[in-house]
């Protein structure tokens, strides 16, 4: 006898709810159809469902996302880094307290005395026909951030070595929920033979029909839930083995919307507005924001970041503020609207030569006009770099780029062998935007505060009436 077992999954929604009513309708329909046919079906999320870029996620600190998942009927989820490192310890500790689905993350550990009640290392399920399925969950080990929030994420491969043999003894099929990224998923498939399916995310890769490495099928469905994923497993009860593994992704953006979900989202928008619309300060005059020009608001924000982090100097890009503010009351919603990024302040150590190279790069049009997507940045362009604690004299060349004429710190030229502590957005510690910053061996991140928390302080301190 052959038995088909179904998994439908989402990954990396990032609180982008534009397609969520279609996702909800599709997942509910598939689960109802399959279970009515007396077959097994589970709904799964692979993390980064929460992203505080959206006012709903911000106002409810992710709990509204969990409510939406409950309404759809999810069965399993693991954590992404946006759930893990963009909120205070106690907020993550309580995030899934009302979840009606299981949360599986094998490598997340609390550094306080108490683990969350919802946290499971592994879980086991059984199909209609009695096939035993073991599930392991892994999230990316960004411990430079996690440990500042009293969490620790253990090494994914070491964690798999710890649990895989136990799961193999108890299960016929092993599934890994991986918020590690495609390269890590591929490496796991090469090194570990016992995993049948890796359902992935984090790097926003879209594998339309999956990828097979050493008989392990890897799958993922991009980002923002334009696509949802489908895994179909065929178990041969006569031979007691997994006969076939299939993985697909389905474009759901054109499908009918689930009307109950549409209504719920409307209600959540209204509730979020009420929570965020409380005034936090009153501006005596309007404040302008210009991405490619110096403004008083950006200068004060950069100054605040320097003083708040106790750095020698600070560098911040004007593109982090998306819009200006009119005179009058300013609410938390206003601050979130103009600074929605999940970006934390960070201090890096650079010597004089490295700092000079960073400043030179900051002045190029290639960087200031870059339309960045990712690394926490949720704006349009990087924008002009604003400096605090540094006197940077420039000259504009014919090609429109600015070149450095002189750089002074406390009235003196930068010294090659001196170490400077430079505050900036953590965005620049990732990737190759500013190589000297990303390569710095000493980085100090400030959590759970976002740049918008410093913006609120700036508005209250320097611009309120």
UniProtKB/TrEMBL annotation:
This protein's name: Bifunctional metallophosphatase/5'-nucleotidase
Taxonomic superkingdom: Bacteria
Residue ranges of every copy of the Calcineurin-like phosphoesterase domain listed in the record: 8-205
Taxonomic source organism: Lentibacillus cibarius
Residue ranges constituting the 5'-Nucleotidase C-terminal domain according to the UniProt record: 287-427
InterPro entries documented for this protein: 5'-Nucleotdase_C (IPR008334), 5'-Nucleotdase_C_sf (IPR036907), 5_nucleotidase/apyrase (IPR006179), Calcineurin-like_PHP (IPR004843), Metallo-depent_PP-like (IPR029052), Pesterase_YunD (IPR011240)
Keywords: Hydrolase, Nucleotide-binding, Signal
Family: Belongs to the 5'-nucleotidase family.
PANTHER family hit by this protein: 5'-NUCLEOTIDASE, 5'-NUCLEOTIDASE-RELATED
Secretion signal, residue range per the UniProt entry: none
GO molecular function annotation: hydrolase activity; nucleotide binding
Pfam families: 5_nucleotid_C, Metallophos
GO biological process, one term: nucleotide catabolic process
